[in-house]
Protein 1
Amino acid sequence: MSDGEATLVMAAHGTRSAAGEAVHAALAERVRRARPGRRAELGYLEISSPALPAVLAGLTGPVVVVPLLLAGGYHVHIDLPSVVARTRPDALVAAPLGPHALITSVLARRLASAGLRGTDAVVLGAAGSSDPAALADVRAAARLLSGLLARPVTAAFVSAGAPSLPAALERLRSGPAPRVAVASYLLAPGFFQDRLEGVGADLVSGPLGADDDLAALVWRRFDEAAARRVPAPARLRAVPAPGT
């Protein structure tokens, strides 16, 4: 499959938050601006419109689906593949967005905008999952953020997963840090962002939101998936010679 032939479909979870839907739409627009002339559509697994099955069914030609999700879990491993199998079994499904260094950069900027200080303890606050692999993805994201901030970062969860965000805050408040900051490991505002903001941390960053780094990451996941259908000799020919 040629990269130039495929349509990108961004698959978001869905939300009852109008602000959350606006962020998804704004991110989709940044994705389109990153590669002018390329077709890129947005669809939702549930709650919001347009529904992903309808988006997929209305497309012709090759399709690559990129989950607008930050970690593995039910929606990545079960829900999304089931939708694709029913509606566009020929489509390729890319890896979720996280963990990735581009997300880490956005997290650091959001924390800085929220007023992070050098003496603050930091928690990476995520929704959580019953899937151990999804929790592992969040912990890997916390390690990336720890490296960038040059301080420990604890991954904690507001639903399924340990430690819970309240437990992580309680532990850190007994330590030497004067304040505890929560970095929101969420894409958009909504139910889980409200939970993060209501837990009692000294500061909570905004969600990742519509950001050019995230748009670049969407296309990176697209390219990785599209390459799986390019024959090996073609991939080899596309690699420039050393020094070029």
Note: The chain has two domains: 3-97+211-238, 101-204.
Protein 2
Amino acid sequence: MLQHYAGTMTNPAAVLWDMDGTLVDTEPYWIRAETELMNAHGIPWSDEQGLEFVGNDLLTSAGMMRDAGLDLPAEQIVDTLLDEVIAQIRQDVPFRPGALGFLAALVAEGIPCVMVTMSYRRLAEAVIAACPDGSFVGLVSGDEVSAGKPDPEPYLKGAESLGLEPGLCVALEDSKPGLASAEAAGTIAIGIPHLVDLEAKPDRILWSSLEGATVDDLRELTAQRSA
């Protein structure tokens, strides 16, 4: 994925994983749950509207649904959506291509992984439970931060949970708010666009997929950052 780097290569101190859209393809589950809830209250809803929510913290998305005419408390909207998505996850966990293999390679190399997601803990724990034992050593969830993505707080907390500086950590993200959060936190941020395009910028790292990604790719990025 990267051109060969001749410098000394070392492992990143940790990898901070986004969940929805990066590790698992749950965005269609969220869009389906949003559409069913809006339609149940007589409000038309489209996939295009659902895509505007990708990467948001859940209360922000609930507020947008209220603005569109859904007359329910934001907390009730979030709980309803979570219940529906968790029910779908329990039937089928749609891992993104290459994600499980890459995760296993990191664990085999002793590189700790922390999940940093705007989904709430009860959903994140259901996804972690479907991963091989020991895949994640920590979790930062959307109901445990005071400011969600694109604020840097989630990724700052992810690094802090391991006692690490963010600049020593790689972050994997698929959304605009998530990538902005990871970059603002100072991580080695990698954008892996899925449902939403990510803007190419100088010094921004974009991968097309986790398929074929290797630990050596991360070592090269870490070496380049050190240089």
Note: The longest strand covers residues 169-173.
Protein 3
Amino acid sequence: MRNGTGALGLFEGFGVELEYMVVSRDSLKVLPVVDELLRDVAGAYVNEAEAGPLVWSNELVRHVVELKTNGPAPALPGIEGRFQSDIDRINGLLASRDAMLLPGGMHPFMDPARETHIWKRENKTIYNTYHRIFNCRTHGWANLQSVHLNLPFGDDDEFGRLHAAVRVVLPLLPVIAAGSPVMEGKVTGFHDTRLEVYRQNQKLVPSIAGQVIPEAVFTEDEYQEKILEPMYRDISRYDPKGVLGYEWLNSRGAIARFDRNTIEIRLLDIQEYPFADCAVAAFTVAMIRALTWEHLSSYAVQRNMDTAMLHELFLKTIRYGGSARVDTIPFLELFGWREGPCCAGDLMNHLYGVLRGDDADLRYYDGPLSLILSRGPLASRIIEALAADASRGSIMQVYRALAGCLYEGRPFLP
């Protein structure tokens, strides 16, 4: 449905954003050249450049480029080809600088204190304000690459139903999307190190990220009162000119964008090639859709899920991935699981089996999803590849292989 302003209704469109780091082909050192890359395309220094069905844009730091759908796509199947085509084009443009794109949620060797270059072109006031307040030369700011998934809602009721479903799905997303087990040349012990550093990067103003899992609010007025207004009030102490006083300041794992009637999900690490990223997005959508339409559990039951409980599970999955223990029975029953406590990976396999038969998108992405559900997301396969030897040389070899997977559009199989 559409509301009076013509906004898309539930699951009528999908916005997908993929972030990649630019690195040296030889050393894998991060290269701050994204402003030059965008100038190559646009003919001038810009923050973003249209490239057919996609838009290329900057991020906070000059070594990360974002590719995003140019407006909402009507469906997910097929858009991976658009991303792969533009990745090929970007790698061609970067070749003259002996550079390339590197996938994965974090750079394995980056020293952000020395290697961070904050964006210095348009909108630099915003980035400089972030840096002044939070010191962006840290991993939680300068070394993280993600997939953002935007889902529309048409009115307040649709927002509430969508937000309720998104909240309960968020803790499970690292099970299928973790892709950052290495930082500073070491296997960290976390499947999703990106989210471990991300959740702490704005501790100076705790209301900005909250517990990462959003609070149980289900109307726009409630969201303004309990999430946005406290955040604006708290940041004003450090930002008296109000440079950051907008909805995008919110750093929870999913944020409401009432300026464009969407909820933006931020907990997905970038995988090794776009087909896998779009597959993970499709599984995420399938779970949220089934909950929103009350096929798995009622809206009333979803609304009652405790934020602290969801946060505790989130902390488990970012560390242990599919091995994380899920022992809260009411949470498991949300998804039709009746067999008692289990591993998160078993729950995700159960959900895939339940949803796949009626979801053509899941069947379209069956190849990458079957790999992820059997051998784990990118993080699990990186850990597997480094199990016998996690030396710098071996890490370099694995991440060169990941760059090859992105270049060739194929899965990483250790």
Note: The mean pLDDT is 96.
Protein 4
Amino acid sequence: MMRLASPLWLGLIVAAAVLLVVWLLRRRWQRFPFPDVAAALGRAGRFPERTVMAGVLAAVALAPLAVALARPQEVLSRRLERAEGVDLVVALDISGSMSALDFEPTDRLGVAKEVIGQFLDGRTNDRFALVAFAGAAVTLCPLTLDHTVARHLLDEVRMGSLPDGTAIGLGLGTAVARLRRSEADSKVVVLVTDGSNNTGQLDPINAAEMAAELGITVHTVLVGRSGMVPVPVPVRDPRTGRVTQQVRQMEMEINPELLAEVARITGGSSFRARDSKALKEVFEAIDGLEKTEFTSTKLVRYRERFEPWAVAALVVLLLGTALEGLAGKTPW
């Protein structure tokens, strides 16, 4: 098996071809600026002079030189390495209550997105999917190893894109559906919410039982606190129609018992985070829980094979130089 250590050098071949064409056209125009006269003199169809062939050979020599600079290598051995990864879906609550301002430096959703993003950055071998739910549920990112795309879609999550409400059962059911056809040994859902199930056609307990039947572990994370919490509320001026945000104290309903039962049914863990620091600690704990080993192959030993190409470039250059000497003048 062969590989190129620096394949970008192959672009030199294209550059050489372009320069050769430009040089030939420029040289022809300088010698015969009037094509009709050149044809009358019988010069247009002659075999290229030695000096022209010398220039062509000099350009052609760049092709094997480019291959040599790209460093073709023969692979001599491989190494097996062990890594860890799972198929993981984050089901994220984006209901209106996630705008509560009891988390610093932003609201509950902003902090949750930041912590989930940091968690994702540390799980480079996992396939990741993202489900958002409020009064309905939608898959924003299917299972993928492309964490750059997944992180971008996570950053784009906004409240107000779904009907309001907290359909925990629908959110969990949608996440479970993402893992239904997964063949991974470890399948995990991390359910992040700040409320109690108050809408949706699927009961959270039934969704948890579906997950358990499919061998899916569900970890639940309850963010925020109950009681009176500051929440930004849109208020419309009756005279101007202008909408502004006003912070008001609102009563928040939570159901930690429900989330604990969902986790228990699936063999997962239930966490509660009352601030951003606690939320980071929760995801660190989840990171330590979910590890699955698999084997990957890495190439380690190579033999350099650039010498024949370098010799070929030298031979062509010497041939061009010899032709130039016979012609008695430079091709440039």
Note: The chain has two domains: 2-77+302-327, 86-291.
